[in-house]
Design goal:
With 357 residues, the protein is of the alpha+beta class. It folds into two domains: 194 residues, 2-Layer Sandwich (Fructose-1,6-Bisphosphatase, Chain A, domain 1); 150 residues, 3-Layer(aba) Sandwich (D-Maltodextrin-Binding Protein, domain 2), CATH 3.40.190.80. The protein is 30% helix and 21% strand. The protein is built from nine helices and 14 strands. It has a seven-stranded mixed sheet, with helices on both faces. It has a five-stranded mixed sheet with strand order 11-10-12-14-13, with helices on both faces. Strand 8 and strand 9 form a beta hairpin. The radius of gyration is 20 Å and the shape is globular. The mean pLDDT is 93. The structure holds 2,5-anhydro-1,6-di-O-phosphono-D-glucitol and manganese (II) ion (2 copies). The site of one manganese (II) ion has 4 residues, from strand 4.
């Protein structure tokens, strides 16, 4: 057993709090409870095949996607960990059409919790890595209980973001704006222990992740960019490896540790995904914050995802996230080749939220 100092995530979060003298411990408590929720969800994902948690439920979400039983289970666990704590003024989940209000019998607090309870749902029944994504905004409006104005804030204003990847091991990764830290679940101890300190994208990327099954729908700029990743743009170009497993968290995590880029582009020919598939509020903002903290960058093809002004809770956003040089190359290809797509996307991107009218 290595004599390496054992730092649990709870202790690490406490230590991070010391950097915020005005911190009251409420925010710390939220992060610690996310770790507890992660342990509980991990326990169920590891045995979903043995319990009645595999397969689809008989309901669908606002995207028209059939909800998996584990989607609903994870969603309920995270709700139950937060709704009665007096820490949040509102919550929002990928699996709920509207804001999740704090029940009137409980106090409200100064934070907003946004979460994708189970990411990569299509992989649940085939034992491939899945994840959970969350982010925390601070209350913004003067309303007593949370409003859409408190939720639809730009990613630049995030206080914290994190994800859990239920893979060969279960890891929780988070940032509060002072670097990215990874914790590995020691199942025997039941503790997340610090295993990755101040994660940074390696200088040299190794992988690119995109669903090649959608190639016929790609815009000219995306096609051009993918060719550069494949080393087809010039005789001396070095191709990157292609890895895409259909769980954003797992693809993002591998690319952050090994270097690379995850791409889910928008297109105008595929009717149901005109502006990509990723959800700005439940996936893209959180991973963009983490990527930035790890020296990377996340763009919607036009600019920094953290600058995109949200206009609706379930807003989609094209996503290019990873090594900054690669993401900026994607932006250049889109600027040069995708005027038609830009003319259609920009009005959607620049729509103002209802509460601004
Ligand atoms: P979710 O399971 O939360 O709906 O997310 C699935 C997302 C993301 O995890 C993954 O990268 C992407 O969908 C895969 O989409 P395609 O199957 O269209 O490639
Ligand atoms: Mn997801
Ligand atoms: Mn999901």
């Amino acid at each position: 057993m290595s004599s390496k100092k054992l730092i649990t995530i709870e202790r690490h979060i406490q230590e991070q709090q010391r950097a915020y003298p005005q911190a009251t411990g409420v925010f710390t408590g939220m992060l610690q409870d996310m770790a507890l929720a992660a342990k509980f969800i991990a326990q169920q994902t590891q045995r979903a095949g043995l319990s009645d948690l595999l397969g689809a439920s008989d309901t669908s979400n606002v995207y028209g996607e059939r909800q998996q039983k584990l989607d609903l289970f994870a969603d309920q666990v995270i709700y139950n960990m937060n709704h009665d704590t007096g820490r949040v003024c509102a919550m929002a989940s990928e699996e709920h059409d509207d804001l999740i209000d704090v029940p009137v019998e409980y106090d409200t607090g100064n934070y907003v919790l946004l979460y994708d309870p189970l990411d990569g749902s299509s992989n649940i029944d085939v034992n491939v890595s899945i994840g959970t994504i969350f982010s925390i905004h601070s209350k913004f409006s003067r309303a007593e209980r949370g409003t859409m104005e408190d939720v639809l804030q730009r990613g630049k204003r995030l206080l914290a973001a994190g994800y859990v990847v239920y893979g060969s091991s279960t890891m929780m990764v988070y940032t509060t704006g002072r670097g990215v830290f990874g914790f590995t679940l020691d199942v025997g101890l039941g503790e997340f222990l610090l295993s990755h300190e101040l994660i940074r994208f390696p200088e040299q990327p190794a992988y690119y992740s995109i669903n090649h099954g959608n190639a016929r729908y790609w815009t000219p700029g995306v096609k051009r960019f993918v060719e550069t990743l494949q080393g087809l743009d010039a005789p001396q170009s070095r191709p990157l490896g292609n890895r895409y497993i259909g769980s954003l968290v797992a693809d993002f995590h591998r690319n952050m540790l090994k270097g690379g880029i995850f791409i889910y582009p928008g297109d105008l020919t595929e009717p149901e995904k005109p502006y990509g598939k990723m959800r700005l509020m439940f996936e893209a903002q959180a991973l963009a914050f983490i990527a930035e903290q790890a020296g990377g960058y996340a763009s919607d093809g036009v600019g920094d995802i953290l600058d995109v002004r949200p206009h609706s809770l379930h807003q989609r956003v094209p996503m290019f996230v990873g090594n900054r040089a690669l993401v900026e190359k994607a932006e250049a290809c889109i600027r040069e080749h995708d005027q038609a797509w830009l003319e259609a996307y920009l009005p959607y991107r620049n729509t103002r939220a209802a509460f601004f009218s």
